Amino acid sequence: MYGVVTRNADEVEMEPFDLGFYEVKDVTGRAAAPLPNAVNMVSCFGDNAAASENPELVPVDERGEPATRDRDYFDWAYICPTHPEYREGLLEIIEDCAAENDDVRLDDVGFPREGFCHCDRCERRFAESDRDDWTDWRADVITEFVADAAERVPGRVLLTLYPDPYPDHLRARAGLDLDRLAEHVDEFVVPLYDTEYATTYWLETIARGFRSRLGGDYDVHGAPPETPFSLELYAVEVDVDDLIHATEVAERYAKDVFFGYDANNAAAALRRKDADEREGEVHRPD
């Protein structure tokens, strides 16, 4: 199955896609009303606008440095996952999405990096918890949020993961404990974005790593993971032939393949891919 990720409501049912993801809240802070004919997406803890308006929302490291896009390695500003009012606001948005369409996708879930967050609230909550290890406590915070969100979604819960399948990396970096999250999530989505896809060995390596990490057979022809995962490719201004090749690699390992932010280019790639496959068919005479 192929899907498109878009901010344009008129693209969610565009052919030849089987599924449309619609960004109800993105990392800029832009908000839109959820759609009944799309899987609505919520950027949970990425929010440039909220961070700019209220710096107290932003996670800080041990030196008090904030996780904002003004710093190296951050493409957007983050919000501390323990902030109670912000969390409640997110859950209300998720409820609104689920009221329009049973399925919801959670995006940008987790702490920014290993060194976050050391705000007074996080320090206090860790001290008051029954955890001795800070990494364990952070995993509790994120798992509890996803569980709370999942309770509000009557259909499928999809969760975006950072593209890092190596053991314990996601847990150490963002507080994402895949084994625990799998109890609340129906499908993981892994964005593997590139502006060219001129080479795809790295895409195959990461895809195969996630297949193995999530419990599937290492052999691509073997049993898939119990919790399926899909791959999301970047489609903006990517050469059509390169995008087709990336799609062919991705679909060997993932349940589905989604395309981000250029529906027309992705549609052109899929149509050409389909035409090439039809031309390659060999029909034997009766």
Quickly list its features.
single chain; 286 residues; alpha/beta; TIM Barrel; eight-stranded parallel barrel; 8 strands; disordered C terminus
**Helix content, binned percent:** 25-40%
User: Any idea how many domains?
Assistant: 1
Low-confidence parts? 282-286
Helix segment tally = 9
Annotated CATH architecture: Alpha-Beta Barrel
- Gross morphology: globular
CATH homologous superfamily placement = Glycosidases
Report the major sheet.
8 strands, parallel, barrel
Order of helices and strands: EEEHHEHHEHHEHEHEH
Mean pLDDT: 94
For the biggest β-sheet, the strand order reads 1-2-3-4-5-6-7-8
Query: How large is the share of residues in beta strands?
Result: 5-15%
Structural class: alpha/beta
Radius of gyration: 20 Å
